[in-house]
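COMPLEX REQUEST
Ligand: zinc ion
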Amino acid sequence: MILPKEQIKRYMRHIIMPEISGAGQKKLLESKGLVVADSAEDVLPLLFYLTASGIGHLQVILKEKEGFSELKASLLDLNPDLKLELEGDIPVLRNTENVNFAVFAADYEESKNLKGVPKIFSLVGPWGGFLTTNMDGSNDGLSLFGKAKEPRECSAGLVMSRFFAGTLAAIEAIKICLNLGKTLEDPLHYNLLDMEFKRANGETLPEDPLKGMDFSDLKVLIVGSGGLGSPAAFALAQAGVKNIGLVDSDIVEISNLNRQILHSTSRTGMPKVESAEMFLKKISPDIEIEKYYVQFNNKNALDIIKDYDIVIDGVDNLPTRYLLNDACVLAGKPLAEAAVLRFEGIAMTILPGEGPCYRCAFPKMPQAGAVPSCTEAGVLGPAPGVMGTLEAAETVKIFAGSGKLLSGRLLIFDALEAKIITPALSKNERCPICGKNPAIKDLSGNYDFVCENN
Ligand SMILES: [Zn+2]
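STATUS: Structure written out below.
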């Protein structure tokens, strides 16, 4: 395939990490994926992340044709180079040419006709589901679908599962296209309510203890509306959260669009908080977005977070991460924390006065330059999607007082190895902010080392 010059230029600005780089990005552009689902809602996060990642050609087959044109417009605005075929009827799937991978988000007999193509099978229920990849194109994953409960009402739990499965399936697809890392050949069973991830072994999907939850009283602040903030805000808006504050002093750039799915090509140059508001209002017209087009710093931190119930960390640099931790501990605000670099992510939930904080886990702020930033080391597009989804799920659970939180545990996600573990994390009595004799009593200290971006 010979690429038009303009297109190559656009994609060279997406170069994200050495393992993928120009050659890998070109390979993604030349790849074709098949997605089969009942409705667009079932696979919305997956489609956004496949599109953002630069997969060149998507054939999407949906039983319900509702919202086709709007979906097409949004995806093409995220990546104008995408060749997108949206179809309404499931063809027999024989002779599906040049398909590099197929994702099935429901049980379709037709999948059996597709031979020799790696298949990703995903079954979601509220707060949990199954996901597996068959590299040999066999249909073993179909047995997972015996474990579905019908009908499924839309709920916060179902939204979280769709995001988790969608972002994870997008990672599987990229690994297949680039022949990178390990895929999920052992079926994964995930439970986002208790944050448990293991090899599927006869489980069924859980009942939803939060069905019909009303979020009208919840106010969530998301600091940063980039790689982590995008999926977190998108998922919360779809789940029914009506009050969200967004802090970001950046404008949308084309290099953001491989992972920051709230933004789009037509909105480059716009402040991210405005672009995000436009996107979120489309999903949820009555959502209230409070925009803070400012740099989050030690002068304004406490003032901004005071009006919110729960805070989400979507920042892209360590000094601000420490600042946000300290501000939340001092103000007694629960903080859903996550960070991503290259193929890895970590997440924890900080409940001030109860569990460990970020400084308990990582006592010393590294020296400037010791840790590469996302811009320097790159990040796999959908990896922050997984981590931002986990932050959104934790936020709903904190509000509802339900499930097992990532408080006192550190979740570690390895996208290349397809592995998620949650080792225990204890409070450090000598922690400088939440220990017995804290040295940090306000935010007047130095949070200034800046090694990022510019
Ligand atoms: Zn601490």
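REMARKS: The two ends are 35 Å apart (CA to CA). Residues 450-454 have pLDDT under 50 and may be disordered.
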